[in-house]
Amino acid sequence: MSESSPLANSATAQSTDHPAGSAWGVILLGHGSQRGASPRECSCAWQLPPEDTDAPVAVESPAELPDWPAWCLRCPSTPQGLGEAARRLQLQLESETGSESGRAQVLLSCLEFIEPFPDAAIRMLSERGLDKVVVMPYLLGHGKHATIEMDEMLDEVRAQLPQVQLYVADGLGADPRLAALVVERIGDLAAAAPVPGPGQTVGVLLVKAGTRTQYDDCLWLAELGRMVENRLGLGYAVDVAQSHYGDPTMEFAAARLVEERGVSALICVPYIFFPGLILTRNVLGTLNRLQEQYADVVMTVAPPLGVDDRLIAVAADRIREVWNRV
Measured between alpha carbons, how far is 262 from 164 in angstroms, rounded to an integer? Predict the structure, then answer.
């Protein structure tokens, strides 16, 4: 996608006449995907009859789809959702920093699929006179993309653009606001969500996209799971997993919930931004197998996270932490 595309400019239509040294470029760095434009690639398609999952992309309302869940949120695709996240981050940083400091010009960049890629994005900001740049990893994890690959990419950019001062903000990580968002996604299921009863515990399986254990030990995810369980309160048991590649696996976490904690129902919460292949193939594919294995356990799946102001607020805080350090 070129710089002149709507997505590339969705959050960058700001004045570039800041005094030298006063303005910052901000890269909102996502992973990127072109998937998820169809409702059949989202949580609400799980266990629907095949004729329903073949519904056309152009359908505007779940009410137009036979047997489609009423709780469907019509989640955006990855390009749409990341573009909206960048726009909201621009607005939030403007409101927080005020016109006196004139801090931020936000540019969306992705590691693959969606241009501009990080090196080109940083070069674009430098050409606008923004030689102090914060890279905000808008990633739900600390895998290879957020560590080794990012370090290598930034080292190359520093060599090519020595005039640019590059800073990397901390990732989203575990945060009470994100725990609140997970609980809200469970609440979005409304009557479709199982609730604890006398002597019955509802399990919550919080699943992130997979990355190899050598790159992400998922300790932050375990902490987030504890936050979610504390918010849900009595009658709920929460465990965490990865969709594929690394530990803990969905099978391992489900066994702990069913066999050790004795849950009678299970809600799978995809800790994923948007619909797409990882959600349908890895998360829901494994959930199908778990439903066969634990036929007596009622299972359902919540919507993905989507675009939410709490995510944007956490990202803004991470950026502000960099500004406060410099």
Answer: 55
